[in-house]
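fwd from M.: "can u put these together and see what the complex looks like"

so here's what she sent:
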Amino acid sequence: FTTFPNMPKWRKTQLTYRIVNYTPDLPRDAVDSAIERALKVWEEVTPLTFSRLYEGEADIMISFAVGEHGDFYRFDGPGNVLAHAYPPGQGIYGDAHFDDDEQWTMETAGTNLFLVAVHELGHSLGLFHSANMEAVMYPLYKSLTDLAQFRLSQDDVDGIQSLYGSPSDDTPVPTKPVPPTHEPLAMCDPALSLDAVSTLRGEVLFFKDRHFWRKSFRTHELEFHLISSFWPSLPSDLDAAYEVTSKDTVFVFKGNQFWGVRGGEVQAGYPRSIHTLGFPPTVKKIDAAISNKDKKKTYFFVEDKYWRFDEKRQSMEPGFPRQIAEDFPGVDTKIDAVFEAFGFYYFFSGSSQLEFDPNAKKVTHILKSNSWFNC
Amino acid sequence: YPLDGAARGQDTSMELVQQYLENYYNLPKDAKQFVRRRDSGPVVKKIREMQKFLGLEVTGKLDSDTMEVIHKPRCGIPDVGD
């Protein structure tokens, strides 16, 4: 590895970034997700943290441009130069520019934005090019056959840690596929909470941060995956998810957006705003959701209230929102996630899980959130 | 006189090589001399430097592997600093 001459580096560990504009090649959320994941790659091996700004001057300003774009390094059309970035410092320094004459993608075809962003943000943090062909800081673009296998090389880690040190002295730095932190130990942590839970074609997906567990009731197997390894354009840290079996589609929510996912494919035309479902502008995000296939109704839970959506008429029903505790007695805490199994609703709240009998209209059991993980 | 196709093509790739070495390996910008200087010490030295950095066989010559790499998409930041 090499660092820029005179070794410029950030003199602070909390950095800010801003996505100034977007490429027409990808949905905005895909660009957001690619940049977020690229920053997380460097965050995991350093003490650095990145927070996003939506206006004004951030340390790292990320933009797409073609040809002459206001610095002395014009872009050159399709191919050849894909992007460039500046070493740490004020103004244009730290910024990353992406040539919008390239075809930016989330897959292995075309030019994968995530891979190029990891490289360019390495420059924004102070790394120069590496002669190690395995390094992400090697100057030539190399696609990957399996993006989920992406890892920094030891050369990259040594380089960035020569500037900023490791996340903390006693934390060994992962340089090869290391089971993510939610592997069995954390999975059986009694304090474990979940972001979202949904059924999917007879299985159940338990989402947490960037990963999810996949449980089959038929085989009782439990798998563990990166969300991005199945759906590269989906964000992490989801808010809610539910399956509409009649559409063979799982709907996934984060913030004021939602995606439709069928099998391994995110459906075209997503993300959409949650307000297209009929939520008032005051609702900025939802906490949990579940769809009842018999009644063809979907329940959206937001803080202490819930809405009911008619799947046949595709509209929110009048007379809502209602208090959750009124219609689901005993469910009187903020809900993180909910799904249905064996005729019961399972509401997740922090490390607890409430088994609710919708016929008896009462909570029948209180369990740990990870009770499904064969701990 | 108009260059024939091969010569013109060769000129274009010579330009590309020159730009590459100037952009990424600090070859001094000295347009007029490049084609004649192609075998001169400083240019051969830069070609060798590039081949070494990018993991190619260090021949000092613009062999096909080297020409292929020069056409590959890459980052716009230099490979050696000044």
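replying to her w this: Confidence is low (pLDDT under 50) at residues 169-185 of chain A.
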